[in-house]
Structure formats: C-alpha cells, structure tokens
Design a protein that fits this description.
- The chain folds into two domains: about 10-125; about 135-310, Reverse transcriptase/Diguanylate cyclase domain (Alpha-Beta Plaits, 2-Layer Sandwich).
- It is about 60% helix and about 10% strand.
- It is built from seven helices and seven strands.
Length: about 325
C-alpha cells in the first residue's frame, strides 16, 4: 500500500500537524532565544558606541565654535592694525597673538584626544563587521584582535594608558569532540563565548583566537584587575558549564608588541595547563605566578611562583589541547 495514500480523519491530521509544529518549535526556540539575547547585547553595545561618538562630536563642536569666535576677533584686530600702520600697533599684534596662542594649543590638544577617542570607538564598531567576526561564536576574530590591539598600543604610546589581556583555553576539548562529536563541541564554544561576552564590560573585546582559545582585551585595566576578572570568569565557567578553562593573564609593558604581549599571555596559559588546569596564572614580565591557589584538582600541586625564564617558550598559535 502506498503510504501517501492513507487518509486520516481531519481532526487527527490537524493534531499531527500541531504536534510536529510544537516539536519543531521547541527545537528551534533555544536557538531563537540565544539569537535574541545576543542581539540585545549587541544593540546595547552599539548604543554605547553611538553615545560616546555623540559626546566626542559635541565636545569638538563646542570647542571649534569658541575657537572660531576667537579667530574672527583676531582677524578683525589684525586688519585694523594693518590699516593704522603705527609702530605701537605691532606690539598690540604680539599681545593679540599671545592671547590666541593658548586656546589654539588647547584646541589642538583636544582634537588629538578626540582623534584617539574616535579611533577607539571605531575599533569597537569594527567588531560588528563580518570580516572581523567569527562565524561560529559571533565574537571578534584574529583580524578584530589586531585592530583592537593596534588602538590600545597607540593610546598607550600617546597617553600612557594601560591595558591588559587574558587568554583562555578549554581543558580537554579534544575529548569533547572525540566522545560527543563536533556539534557538541561547537555548542560549548558558543556557550563559552556567550558567557565571556556577558561577563565582559562593553569596552572589552572578546575574541575567538583559534580553535578552543579565546582572548579578552581589557582597556584601562591593570594586571591586578585583569587577574581577578579572569579568575572569576574561570570559576563561573566551571560552575555553569560541563567543561573548565585555564587562563593566562598579562598587561602591556613599555616596548611590547602584539607578538610579545600575546606570547607572555600564552606562557602564563601554558603554566596554568601544566599546573593542573582549571586555574589562572599571570605573567608579570618577570615571573609567572598563580592568581588564586586552586583546589579543583587536589592531586596537582603547582608552584605559586614560576621563573619566566624557566618556562617552555610557546608561540601564540600553540595548541594546548594535548596538555
């Protein structure tokens, strides 16, 4: 008998259709809810960027208006002095020039500051573009990380502002893929990215660095603050997810480049892996030390301080899954 030739009563057919619709809806609802929550976070962040750009534009506009009035008065004064052709007039001109010099220099400084602020907000806007977004997690990708670090190093060089960086890696992630499949692994990556994004500030940049590694760029944050945040995030992941993460934290130092900064964070992460996983280490530039003594794995007894020179050097692209 042709299965498609079976005729069901109308009420039964409608019930079947309703049941199928309910099951499909239940399956898609978590994904829809996840997209909705993520969209709300992105909208809040976009609104924050727009507000900051508006503040910058308003400040520049007011400064330019005041300076334009000063320049107009100066121009009129110079015109009158040139007509008078008196020797005393040149003394007045020097005085007028001195009076306008100070607000002109102040405006130049304000414009330089505004330029850097606009550049930083532009970097925040870049994280919304597809070419700077990881398609799986929706976070920034390596290109977005490069842009964010370029901005932070420029601000550090000009104003001496500090910033820090944390690198995280999922513990035993290869086992998740091998035992549960890559779909389960992808779900964990998305969940971790969402948790990092929810925990970070609007000014922080969350990056999927590659594979199961994530990087957080934290502007205007010293090593102590970044270390506390990173370890709290590690603890939050351990409590909320079926996996744990290890973290390496460092802060930008004079003479650093992107490569040297990432390499230090990677060395601290390697120490956290070697020390037993599910813990956070930081690199001070001189030593690698634990952020918090962890008891997640009682058999491991990591040293509280490690000489940075004694650690195995790793490149930023090193895969820690084998640890």
């Amino acid at each position: 008998m042709d299965p498609w030739s079976i005729h069901l009563p109308v009420p039964v057919a409608l019930a079947v259709v309703a049941l199928l619709g309910y099951l499909v809806g239940r399956r898609s609802k978590p994904a829809d809810d996840d997209i909705l929550l993520r969209s709300r976070r992105e909208l809040r962040r976009a609104q924050s960027v727009a507000t900051e750009l508006e503040k910058i534009a308003w400040t520049v506009r007011k400064s330019l208006a005041r300076h334009h009035a000063s320049v107009s008065r100066f121009k009129d004064r110079v015109s009158r002095l040139s007509l008078e052709q008196q020797e005393a007039a040149w003394g007045e001109l020097c005085k007028e020039a001195e009076e306008i010099l100070r607000p002109t220099l102040q405006l130049a400084s304000q414009m330089a500051t505004a330029y850097d602020e606009i550049r930083q907000q532009s970097a925040n806007l870049m994280t919304f573009t597809e070419v700077r977004t990881d398609p799986l997690t929706g976070m920034s990708n390596r290109r977005g990380l490069d842009d964010a670090l370029n901005v932070q190093f420029a601000l550090m060089a000009r104003y001496g502002t500090e910033f820090s960086l944390a690198m995280f890696d999922i513990d035993h992630f290869k086992e998740v893929n091998d035992k549960q499949g890559h779909l389960a692994g992808d779900r964990i990556l998305r969940d971790l990215a969402r948790l990092c994004d929810e925990s970070a500030r609007e000014t922080d940049v969350v990056v999927r660095y590659g594979g199961e590694e994530f990087v957080l760029v934290m502007p205007q944050t010293d090593l102590e603050g970044a270390s506390l945040f990173a370890d709290r995030l590690r603890a939050k992941v351990a409590a909320a997810m079926p996996v744990s993460i290890s973290g390496g934290v460092t802060t930008a130092l004079d003479g650093d480049t992107q490569d040297s900064l990432l390499a230090r964070a990677d060395e601290a992460l390697y120490a956290a892996k070697s020390g037993g996983r599910n813990r956070t280490y930081r690199h001070t530039g001189q030593v690698i030390e634990t952020v918090v003594e962890d008891t997640a794995e009682p058999n491991a007894d990591p040293p509280s301080v490690v000489d940075a020179a004694s650690t195995v050097p790793m490149t930023p692209n090193a895969d820690h899954a084998a640890l």
